[in-house]
UniProtKB/TrEMBL annotation:
UniProt EC number: 2.5.1.97
Pfam families: NeuB (PF03102), SAF (PF08666)
This protein's encoding gene: pseI
Entry-linked CDD domains: SAF_NeuB_like
Protein name per its UniProtKB record: Pseudaminic acid synthase
Transmembrane segments: none
Domain AFP-like residues, every copy: 294-349
One function term, GO molecular function aspect: N-acylneuraminate-9-phosphate synthase activity
GO biological process, one term: carbohydrate biosynthetic process
Alphabetical UniProt keywords: Transferase
Amino acid sequence: MSEIKLGNRSVGVGHPPFIIAEMSGNHNQSLEIALEIVDAAADAGAHALKLQTYTADLMTLNLDYGDFYIDDPTSLWKGRSLYQLYEEAYTPWEWHKPIFDRCRERGITPFSTPFHPDSIDFLEELDVPFYKIASFENNDLPLIKYAASKGKPLIISTGMASLAELEETVTAAREGGCKELILLKCTSSYPATPLDSNINTIPHMRELFGCEIGLSDHTLGIGAAVASVVLGATVIEKHFTISRAAGGVDAAFSLEPHEMKLLVEETERAWQALGHISYGRSDKESQSLKFRRSLYISQDLQLGDTLNEHNLKIIRPGYGLAPKYMDRFIGKKLAKAAKAGTALSWDMI
């Protein structure tokens, strides 16, 4: 797999994780709040900010009964129709340009999730650098093919998709012209629990589909995201808000600025810690030899004195011969005088 460029950053196992802050509907229908979210994401060190580009009419029917009404008592959105939810959560299209402009001013990459071909056409006018297909749309093969036809990197969340469906999704993307594909392991519950995250799927997906793999994470906190890096995730997406207390359709499972900053820092630390297969002492560890054990003369001795357990000790620091040679020296006569505190060496017998 060759590395992928998302905006001005390279994505791949040889690079720190690419962190996406998803605004979603956390702007609470205020452009001012939306721009504050951009600034907070940039200050926290996120690499990209994601919008969602749709209107309620492009998403569903304006009905408040039957299949179009959310009556699941465990849902964050119980008591609303799908149409009402999307009306509340959508980002007005006329806001996209000022939000994109603020992102670019702040040095983070703006992009979006389109939910309809019309969304893609609109985003093309804004020179969006890549696209993200949401989990609930990963079975919309015509949409995927249309997004892929634009010749830009494509990120697809895999929530709810069976392996067979995911094969269809990937095939549609590649047949549509996508040459730079990133799949995000995702659990489509809000919030998700760590027990349901199953991030061990990440290396399996990489092997099966031969592309970059990341995590779209709806759990609370950053533990699952940090762990995913160890398993090879190169992209992390988390919902983001200024304050959960301020509310918003996704606020309950969104990170606040101090948490996003910690996510950026700790995922990079996890990536750095992976390193490579290494045994033995590193250059930096040489400074710690003072705290390792080795063989030292513990009493002032003269030429010809016999070494024993009283005048030869296994102690710190570690500049003498290794403790494993203790038995080789016990009972041997010194070839030269040695003061207490002399590191044992082979030429002393």
